Amino acid sequence: MSAQVLGSADEAVAATQDGATVLVGGFGMAGMPTDLIDALIRQGAGDLTVVSNNAGNGDTGLAALLAAGRVRKVVCSFPRQTDSWVFDGLYRAGEVELEVVPQGNLAERMRAAGAGIGAFFSPTAHGTPLAEGKETREIGGQTYVLEYPIHGDLALIKAHVADRMGNLVYYKTARNFGPVMATAAATVAVQVHRLVETGELDPEAVVTPSIYVDRIVPIGEVDG
Amino acid sequence: MSSSDQARSKDEIAATVAHDIAGEHPHGAYVNLGIGQPTLVADHLPDGAGVVLHTENGMLNMGPAASEDEVDADLINAGKQPVTELPGAAYFHQADSFAMMRGGHLDVCVLGAFEVSAGGDLANWHTADADAIPAVGGAMDLAIGAKQVWVMMSLFDKQGRPKLVPECTHPLTGVGCVSRVYTDLGTFDITPDGVRVREATGTTSEEIRKRLDEIAWL
After folding, report:
1. Residue positions of B annotated with a catalytic role
2. Cβ contacts (< 8 Å) between A173 and chain B: which residues?
3. Do B113 and A80 form a contact (C-beta atoms < 8 A)?
4. Is residue B202 very low, low, confident or very high in pLDDT (cuts 50, 70, 90)?
5. Which of A80, A172, A176 faces B93 most closely, judged by CB atoms?
6. CATH topology of domain A17-222
């Protein structure tokens, strides 16, 4: 099914169910799909597992979703920041569960989900508390830790430009988790700064091919 | 008193690291500087050294911090500070960025630390304090990925306890991964046979060995 261009972020998240696993793009606020998250707050689904690099910054985006009490569990690499007061408060009050995953394993576990890989051995975190209880294997003299994929029910990402088919290009370091999350969720919604006609993007420059994208929400300009 | 007669400042440690990166990689190097103290190294890299900086959030050939009129919220470093791009920069997604680390493509990474053990174990992500919220970011991937992992830290903490130790007491970031430690009082090579004082600053090699008498010195 090719991607749908939607008139509002609300339509893109309308079918989200309680208990869903939602992959949320962004590294800090760079690449954070704030309009889609605001729509998810209005939509009302709760008991969510959120997979993202951080656990919210300031009071907007992911932090607002947390503040609304919709998140049961956060899977991330770096929750603690100078401006993560919303998460910090919920965590200390025991109101949100936390799974800390090294950033590279986080990315690779989603890459594996999107690529049909059942599990993989990573050298990262061997001998540390984050690998405790996990299966290990020695390969070529090095110890690796068995890691499983992370599948999302929904991915919310931000890109710079989409064409109407759903091909995406990104902008600078806002790319971060977008291309990986786009492969790893059953439904992928992207908010874009600009929508162009199919054929206008240089095929050599497409970063996320249209096959991964389900719902496009133009937030800025629309050509044609 | 010359600088060699006293402990090095953070800036002087960074200058030494930058000097060694350039000196040991005459044809240039791909380098990742961890957040905090290691970012100072960028200010001391000699022009023309051919050092390409990698930032874990998905960029090669990162430039200096952005000036006020250059700030772009979508162009940031691993510490989420606004930065700039240099000619030849490239952007890539997180799975690629960390494949560069684990795949052994980075020549050097420079990290801060709470502790480094004589066997090269690194502890830099979590103090295990009861109310601390654990956060690791890319530290574990960097620690085991780069060809050379160098640490910048003070040799003693504020309470005077050594940070170069026989075994780490804090939770580990990586096992046997650190090959060199730059501190205010000297630089140390961590080898399979023991720790070697590469350089003492404001003190003597003998004095350091005496103060850290639990270390297996070479």
Report:
1. 56
2. 55, 57-59, 74-76, 91
3. no
4. very high
5. A176
6. Glutaconate Coenzyme A-transferase (3.40.1080)
> Residue A137: is it exposed, middle or buried by C-beta count within 10 angstroms (0-12/13-18/19+)?
exposed
What residue segments make up the domains of chain A, in order of their start? 17-222
Domains and CATH numbers, chain B: 3-211 (3.40.1080.10)
Among B74, B140, B171, whose Cβ lies nearest the Cβ of A102? B140
Question: How distant is the Cα of A172 from the closest Cα of chain B, in angstroms?
Answer: 6
- Alpha-carbon distance A101 to nearest alpha carbon in chain B (angstroms): 7
pTM of the model: 0.96
Closest-CA distance, B69 to chain A, in angstroms, reads 17
| Extended beta strands in chain A, E state | 4-5, 21-24, 48-51, 71-76, 97-100, 120-122, 136-139, 142-147, 152-163, 168-169, 185-196, 215-222
CA-CA distance, A58 to A60, in Å (whole number)? 6
Predicted local distance difference test score (pLDDT) of residue A170: 98
Q: Dmax over Cα atoms in chain B, in whole Å?
A: 52
Considering only CB atoms, A180 lies closest to which of B93, B144, B173, namely B93
Indicate the length of chain B as a whole number. Answer: 218
